[in-house]
Each structure stands twice: as structure tokens, then as C-alpha cells.
Amino acid sequence: MRAARLHRGLIADTCPQVLEPFPEHQEDVYQHLAARAAALHAVRGARILIGIAGVPGSGKSTMAAAVCSLLNSERFLGSNQCLVVPMDGSLLGCL
Fold it and tell me: Percentages helix, strand, coil for the chain, rounded to the nearest 5?
């Protein structure tokens, strides 16, 4: 997956101390992101907000739905702990 290789390269260039193996397959990426979000939630013990940015059609909504579904599974946080709040460009002028 090209995005995974690009992500790995950006992390290595900007933060070598947090470099870790990044999954190559899409489903593994979702699992990896859900695990990191669940770990962050466990450490903070409070609500967290995760933003996803990218060009139109890059899979942001698909990734958000998949990661949220995983987080709501019993493996991670349990039911109704994660919520996807879509935000399109037309709303940015309201902020």
C-alpha cells in the first residue's frame, strides 16, 4: 500500500523516535489505528478526538467507519464508545 510506505517515510523523517512498523494491508492499518486509539483512550481516561485529513476520494470516511466499528467492538472499547462525525468542506467556514 503506497499510503503506508509514504506514512512510514514521513514518520521516519519527522519523528525517528516514534518510528514503528506500519502495516502494509488496509485491514491491518485499521486494526493498528484502532489499537493506538484505544491505548490513547486508556492512558488519558477521557474523551479523545481524532481528525482524519486527505484529498477527496482518498478513503477518509471509509477508514473512519472501519476504525470506529473496531473501537466499538468488544476487543477494544465496547459498544457506543466511538462516533464518526462527518465534516465536509462547506462547514469549515462556520468555524
Answer: 55, 0, 45
Closest by Cα among 70, 84, 79 to 31: 70
C-alpha cell at 57: 476520494
Instruction: Name residue 30's amino acid.
Output: Y
Three-state SS at 34? helix
Each domain of the chain, given as residue ranges in start order, spans 26-94
Choice among 18-32, 34-48, 69-83 with the minimum mean pLDDT: 18-32
Looking up cell 492512558 gives 43
CB under 8 Å to 77, separation ≥6 — which residues?
A: 38, 41, 71
Angle between helices 26-44 and 60-71 (to 10 degrees): 60
Please report the pLDDT score of residue 12 as a whole number: 46
State the Cα–Cα distance between residues 8 and 2, nearest whole angstrom: 10
Mean pLDDT across the chain, nearest whole number? 76
